[in-house]
Records
---
Amino acid sequence: MTDHLGKAHAAYSAFAAGFQSLILGTATPDGLPTASYTPFVRDGDGCFCIFVSGLSDHTGNLERTGKASVLLIEDESATPMIYARRRLTFTCTASSVSRGSDDWNALVERFSGRFGSIVQFFRSAADFRIIRLSPEKGLFVIGFGEAYRVGGVRMETLEHINDGGHGVTHPPARSDGMVVGQS
């Protein structure tokens, strides 16, 4: 592993560990987007687990489509460049964890340990459920020219995206060959 890639791995591990909530992107079966947020815990396989109300739009979307996008993004106040905020996105499949199962109970304990007594209310509320968001692929952006595909079984591998940058934008030419804006 090159030193550059080693630094990216260290940044990735530290970045992902620094969040308690995620931004959640879902869509209706008709494709209408919904953005939301929710606290989460990670399971032993690195999946994001969320404890959400069945009354919320995003929960219904997850249950109907089985798809989600997860975003972890650097706070605006912490970034030196608003266009280059550190961020980590994952495309995920969503599946419900069976209420009362050993897996469900273990996740409830993890939520309780992380978020406190409010979780006991969720545990007793019939409409609350745990949904596992299993990452299929990801993207970690550290800054300009520092973007990495995230993959592997446990989303542990990074691959630097090196496609020559964003390219150069040229102004459109007129029919006479002159560039728009020239006389």
---
Amino acid sequence: MKKLLAVLIALTLGLGTTALAADYTVGICQQMPHAALDSATQGFIDALNEALGEGAVEFLVQNAQGDSTACTTIVNDFVTKKVDLILGNATTALQAAANGTFTIPVLGTSVTEYGTALGIENFSGLVGGNVSGTSDLAPLDEQANMILELWPQAKTCAMLYCSGEPNSAYQVKKVAEYLTAKGVTCVEYPFSDSNDIASVAKAAAAAADVIYIPTDNTAAACAEAINGAVLPTGTPIMGGDEGICGGCGIATLCINYYDLGVTTGKMAARILTGEIKIEETEIAYAEKFSKVYNPDNCRELGVDIAALEAAGYTAIVKEKP
């Protein structure tokens, strides 16, 4: 009788454990730590928890610290663990996930242009297969036009970006085409990594009237270093996203990365529950964009803040250390 009771207790505890276990396991590979990517990851997690319930999803969150090899290692571990879905946060993480599995659903976020990231010519918005996601692409023509509006006397624009990020090169190309057509001379200043970013930024500042930095993960992670190199020269920077603008820029037209993560999380929930098929899911784009400015750098360079606010710009609120 005692043995039977022990067996029943063990079975009951086992059933209780099973009931409390997560329904899904989701692997998150974030390319590197910085504010925009952190916000996208948090938005993704919050949206999945809200859609499926707290505890329904076990999140395996890994940060590659900007190392592409680490992205591959992280993804391979997720594949070995047979997770139900993988989030690739930023381009290198997405590329690793897309190359690492052809069966597990893969969603990207904080990726600017999927055709460029995945080598798809004439990209129409649908990746197909096991890959989809969300894009952080802001209207590049409007960003370029903001440069002309804020600095109408500018004759030269330096395009500062990381040579290892194909989506950065894509943005630079598009913005340069627009500015060149308006009579502005554009010169590219690519840097390879954080080791040469300050010296390249100084060279760009010395040669141009204004600097454009696209949505670039390496630049965002090193925004303070860029600021230290460029601000003393008085050369203004137009950032491709809020993180870059807040770290070293004057203004930008940008999206909210937390909201982008939420959109991606809602997409993940529908894929996990079978409501939609990932192979039929097109890339989703941000619907809202905000014009923001960096009050500290504006004051430092004598930019008319009242005029910016009258034109619809709002100040970036920086978190206290």
---
Amino acid sequence: MIIYLHGFRSSPASIKARALQQRMSARGLADAFWCEALPASPQAAIALIEKQLEYCLAAHPALPPTLVGSSLGGYYATWLAEKHELKAVLVNPAVVAPLALESYIGPQTNMYTGATFEFTARHIAELRAIEVTRIKVPQRYWLLVETGDQDLDYHVAVEKYAGAHQTVLEGGDHGFSRWNDYLDEVITYAGLAAPR
């Protein structure tokens, strides 16, 4: 199972989420993909993801789910990977989310649905509460970053995930422009293959 965690102001309709879902469906793995709309509250988002994790771990104890997190989703994936000892793929992750998102306090609009929500100082506090200062087992992570990310400094991620498998690509943007080139590798990394 791949649990895909979208970024801030994003949704399951994001380009990366849909591309991975479509590739998995084409390979007969539609049932092994999960991506839900995450609440604005980090605490509520983590609770929702952990409910799905609990289900996955009970249903398939021999093959734990792999987390795939983009931007803020990468921040969540890191916390959950550390807590539950899971593998995670991090795509241009928001390594210092509380700091990076402080300027967004106030009314926000989802980029894909148009829905509006209020991002508050309480949400920043919730992000601080799940900050991972140092990863314990770098080998559990695969970091995918593009140096042209206009929103986040990729150097911070490279340093934070030192020792992890890292793919650092020149150019690109925060959306990770070459995502489609890595879909099959992500599926393989998660230990998934087409059903027989």
---
Amino acid sequence: MVRPLVALTTTIDAKGGDYGQPRVAAYANYLLTLQLAGLTPVLVTPAHDTKAISQLIDGCAGLVLSGGDDIDPSRYGRDPIPELGPVNPPRDVAECRAIAAAVGRDLPILGICRGHQMLNVYFGGSLCQDIATEFRDAVSHDQMTPWGAHHHEVTVHPDSRLAKALGGNRFEINSYHHQAILDVADGLDVTARADDGLIEAVESRHHRWIVGVQWHPERHEARADDGDPNVRLLRAFAAAVTAYAREG
């Protein structure tokens, strides 16, 4: 069986190569777990121009927005605060172009961590630039335990695509972020929250399948058994992509 193609966004480091030249990058776990879910990932990078991104998205049946750098607050009408982390404007541009192309074709989209935040910004929402600064009563969301280990629990809205995919409404997740969704974009519904109230997942009410999660389902826990919630989430996305590839 031919695996459907799915676009995966990457970052770019302006001086990351051996010769101080720009280099694109993505963690291999994204590619590995998407392949385990039955998909073939295609990299979409900030080095691609608008036409190239459009052509790449046209050849795919879904889009994954990966984690990484902070989003430039000018994109949601805010001035930067001192606690803002490194931003990557070329990546912001490339991902907005990728989302626009994917939304134009109503492709399934999965946003992971930064990708979840980028979906909210793209559709008109805003972000908290630093949780510790702006939400002093929040629990720690930037875990120091091993990569992918569980860190805190979330409650998922029972009448959501996410709850259906995960198979329940209360889960432990990993947590590697210092920013979070603040104002939710019109057209997005909040479908999961941490116990401190921070938004952990959103989904679109107007599109075929657009889901954003603040955690990382692609890390080592996503290689667990078939009943693992993150395995279920990735497979639900893969099922939506496969259905799109078959039916258009």
